[in-house]
Design brief:
- The structure is a single chain.
- The protein is built from nine helices and seven strands, in the order αααααααααβββββββ.
- With 244 residues, it is an alpha+beta fold.
- The protein folds into three domains: 29-110, Serine Threonine Protein Phosphatase 5, Tetratricopeptide repeat; 127-176; 183-241, Roll (SH3 type barrels), CATH 2.30.30.
- The strands form two sheets. It has a five-stranded antiparallel sheet. Strands 2-3 form a two-stranded antiparallel ribbon.
- Strand 4 (212-219) and strand 5 form a beta hairpin.
- Helix 2 runs antiparallel to helix 3 (43-55).
- It is globular, with a radius of gyration of 23 Å.
- 24% of the residues are buried.
């Protein structure tokens, strides 16, 4: 019985992983056209098509990397940093972290220092939905086994009950995590960081675009952020959320 359950769990995990990775759209005619233009070094035209694909949520990691390259060439620092961040979320490519640090150093941007905890956290956030499906699937599977044990085999499903409780707690904790840890890129130059969620609040700082901030919470049209050792509020419309 245990071997059978183990096989089912392995199969379920495989199917989840396979479906999660099936978002590549190499057969998209618009993407093929954009890639062709990029290959011909017609970067502006390719970027226009890439943006259309991106707005429709039809992107590939390679496309994000090319968009970052073109935006950097156009000196659009915030956009380049934004697409590089998204590329990292999609691929976990460690090399792109070095590129981001170089971009930050060159343009004197804050918020790009990374350590192992940042990498682990990024991995967790990237696979957050997949983790949800896995926990939910395992909980449902444990419940099905418990029902079978109780009403078919006529045994007390003590172990299954404990497993259901543990999985339920993990699922609740996982789903109840706020959008903390989320990061965002400041997209507008001369952005005001206020000491409160109001246009009448005091100005803490005026910063350029491209800085990466930690998102601490949101209130109306304002987002509470941390930049370096300081906390304040920025208009949400001035931020590009780093999430796929």
């Amino acid at each position: 019985m245990q071997n059978r359950v183990l096989k089912i769990v392995k199969l379920s995990l495989f199917l989840l992983l396979f479906s999660a990775s099936a978002y590549a759209q190499t057969d998209n005619p618009l993407l093929v056209r954009a890639d062709s233009l990029f290959g011909q070094k017609r970067y502006i035209q390719s970027l226009e098509l890439y943006r259309k694909l991106f707005d429709d949520h039809r992107y590939t990691p390679a496309m994000l990397l090319r968009m970052a390259y073109v935006e950097e060439g156009l000196n659009n620092v915030s956009q380049s940093a934004y697409y590089l961040n998204l590329y990292y979320l999609a691929t976990q490519d460690q090399d792109v972290l070095k590129k981001l640090e170089e971009l930050a150093s060159k343009n004197r941007l804050e918020g790009y220092a990374t350590d192992e905890s940042d990498r682990l956290l990024s991995f967790y956030l990237t696979h957050r939905d997949l983790i949800t499906y896995i926990l939910l699937g395992l909980a449902v599977l444990a419940l099905a086994i418990a029902v079978t044990q109780r009403f078919v085999v006529k045994n007390k499903p003590v172990g299954e009950f404990v497993a259901i409780c543990i999985l339920s707690v993990l699922l609740i904790l996982h789903l109840s995590q706020p959008a903390m840890w989320e990061k965002a890129i400041i997209s507008k130059n001369n952005t005001y960081i206020m000491n409160g969620p109001s246009a009448g609040a005091s100005v803490l700082a005026v910063v350029r675009d491209g800085h990466r901030v930690e998102v601490l919470g949101k209130k109306d049209i304002w987002t509470r952020v941390r930049l370096g050792d300081s906390e304040g509020y920025i208009r949400t419309s001035s931020l590009l959320p780093v999430k796929l």
